[in-house]
Design brief:
By secondary structure, this protein is of the alpha/beta class. 59% of the residues lie in helices and 7% in strands. Helix 5 crosses helix 7 (170-184), helix 7 packs across helix 9 and helix 10 crosses helix 11 (251-261). The N and C termini lie far apart (70 Å).
C-alpha cells in the first residue's frame, strides 16, 4: 500500500512539474515577444496604415464589414496586435502587406468574443502560394497546423473569403485548429474558461459526430467525420458561413458554439454594414 501511494505521489509530482515547466516556457516566450514587439507609437486611427488596413478589410472580410464602427476599430486594433506577434514566412509567394493583414483577420474573427485572441502558442505562420505537399502525404494540403506553426495556402485562403457562403474557409478552419491546439494537445496556452466551455461543446457535438462516423447525414461537410479535430474545424466554417442553416438543423450545437466563442454570427446579419 505504501509503495502504491508513493508511486501515485511521484506521478502527481511529475505531472505538476511538467505542467509548471510548460507554463514557465509559455510565459517566458510571451514576455520575450512583448519586449521584442513594443506597441507602435500612436494608437488606433492615428497609425498611418490604419486607413489602408480598414479599406482592405472592408473589401475582403464580410464579417468586418458587418461590424459597427466601434467594433471595427476594436477588430482592427486586434488584427494589428496579432500581426506584431507573428512572423510570416512566404513559400513560393512574394511578400505583400495585405497577406498578413487578412490572415490575421481570420484569427481575430474566430476569437473576437474572447479575451485571449493572439494564439500565443504559435510564433510563425507559413504562407504558400498554392496547395503544397507535406512529407509522405500524396494529397496536397490547403493548410495545416503543427508544432512548427500555422501553414496556409494563400490561393485557398483568399478564395475562402471571396466565396463566403459555401461553408469552406481554410483560414477559419486552420485558425480553429490553432485555437484548440492547447486543449486537444494538453498544452497550457488556453484560458481555463474556454477549456471548460469546450467540454460542453464536445458534449453537444458528440452525437452528431458519431452519427456522421456511422454514415449518417449532416449539414456539415463530410470531412467533419474524419476525426473530432476536423469536426471542430468544419463546424467553425459552418458557424460563420452558414449560421442560419446550422442553427436550424443543429440548434444545440449552434448554441454551444455561441457560448464557447462568445459571439453569434446571426446577430451581425441584422446589422447594417457601415
Amino acid at each position: 500500500m505504501i509503495t502504491v501511494i508513493t508511486i501515485l505521489g511521484s506521478s502527481s509530482l511529475l505531472v505538476f512539474l511538467i505542467w509548471s515547466w510548460e507554463r514557465f516556457r509559455y510565459d517566458y516566450r510571451r514576455m520575450v515577444r512583448d519586449s521584442n514587439h513594443p506597441s507602435p507609437e500612436g494608437s488606433g486611427s492615428l497609425l498611418p496604415e490604419w486607413a489602408q488596413h480598414h479599406d482592405w478589410l472592408r473589401t475582403h472580410n464580410i464579417y468586418y464589414r458587418a461590424l459597427n464602427l466601434d467594433n471595427q476599430a476594436r477588430f482592427l486594433r486586434r488584427v494589428m496586435d496579432f500581426m506584431r506577434y507573428k512572423e510570416f514566412k512566404y513559400i513560393d509567394l512574394s511578400p505583400d502587406p495585405m497577406i498578413p493583414l487578412l490572415i490575421s483577420s481570420a484569427a481575430v474573427q474566430l476569437t473576437f468574443g474572447l479575451n485571449d485572441f493572439r494564439l500565443d502558442f504559435f510564433d510563425k505562420i507559413y504562407v504558400s502560394g498554392s496547395a503544397y505537399r507535406v512529407h509522405w502525404h500524396k494529397q496536397a494540403f490547403q493548410g495545416h497546423v503543427s508544432l512548427q506553426g500555422i501553414y496556409l495556402s494563400w490561393d485557398h485562403f483568399f478564395h475562402g473569403y471571396q466565396e463566403y457562403d459555401d461553408g469552406h474557409n481554410v483560414g477559419l478552419h486552420e485558425m480553429a485548429h490553432a485555437l484548440t491546439y492547447g486543449a486537444l494537445m494538453g498544452k497550457t496556452t488556453m484560458e481555463k474558461s474556454f477549456r471548460a466551455k469546450f467540454k460542453d461543446y464536445v458534449k453537444a457535438a458528440h452525437p452528431i459526430y458519431t452519427n456522421m462516423r456511422n454514415g449518417g447525414e449532416s449539414v456539415l461537410d463530410r470531412y467533419a467525420a474524419t476525426n473530432f479535430h476536423e469536426f471542430w474545424a468544419v463546424s467553425v466554417e459552418a458557424f460563420f458561413e452558414k449560421p442560419i442553416l446550422l442553427k436550424t438543423c443543429e440548434p444545440v450545437l449552434y448554441a454551444a458554439m455561441c457560448e464557447l466563442l462568445n459571439q453569434d454570427p446571426l446577430e451581425l446579419m441584422t446589422v447594417k454594414a457601415v
